[in-house]
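A quick aside before the break. I want you to see a complete sequence-to-structure record at least once, exactly as it would be stored in a machine-readable document. Don't worry about memorizing anything.
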Amino acid sequence: MAASKNTADAVLFAAPRFLRAARAGDFRTEVFMSTRQLTSLQVIGVRYRGSRPAEGDERALDAYAASGVYAAAGVPFTIVEPAMPEHRRSDDEPANLGLICGAIAADVAAAHRAGRAPLIVGGDCTHAVGVVAGMQKAWGPKARIGLVWFDAHGDYNTPGTTLSGMLGGMPVAVCAGLALPQWRDLAGISAPLPTDRILLVDVRNLDAPEEQLIRATATAIAKVDDLAGPLASLAAACDVLYLHIDSDILDGALVPNHGTREPHGPGLSEVCAAINAVMASRKVGALAVVSVYGAGPGSPVSVASGTALIRAGLESWARHGGA
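That is the input. The structure line, written in tokens, reads:
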């Protein structure tokens, strides 16, 4: 299906209606959102590694477009590519990440306003902060947003727990309000995600201090093949979910040029089944497939894996609908 530039065909993936009913006997408010059929898609292609252009590695975006995978949902789609505001770049890299994430957030929010389901591709895990910010802008301050994090790593480190110093190992902690507020603030996150609205899936390689931090929070951890209970609890507590997939959740043989590939991981069939389980909640409002290296030895295998993950996500999203 050819990409559509007409926003008029997108109105059926409408912004959720909020029905607020205070619980008897207290002042809490529940927000209910109805399922929406997927009728139009906004592909948000991120050609960056962190805040820098991914020079020599198009993050698999050209390969995805050539493959036709964006048509897998059977709905019209458009493609946008956010850009770093270079005139605002500084020596503070977390702040720079906030700026590129702010551009991503603007595209996520614009997609929702236009009635398009946001699919974020390319980029890496640092850009998840922008997706959360965009969802907050789109769904409103009272929406209970949940994060489902498919990854071989927790990405829950802070500057105080990290063993490597990699900012790419910190975005979940940033979203949760545990580290680097300039990154979060410049991205546009108005309130950190409560840790009981975060579900980490697989995370087979956690740094010891990172795991200690996670265990001190209300964040849940689940195996790819044992999602039912934790996912049901998260879905019940949230109005809309962000499904984030780092391709390194797959066994390293399936992403051989990934910079943080890990052995002993699940195969495509297992991960695709888990994707379907999350989509079956009918609460997914944004989907990201990131960190697919489009250049270098092994790239054809990695790109094929990334394409398969996107296809599985889109087909399942179209089948079940979302928030």
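Two observations worth writing down. The mean pLDDT is 91. Residues 35-320 form a domain with the Arginase; Chain A fold (CATH 3.40.800.10). We'll return to this after the break.
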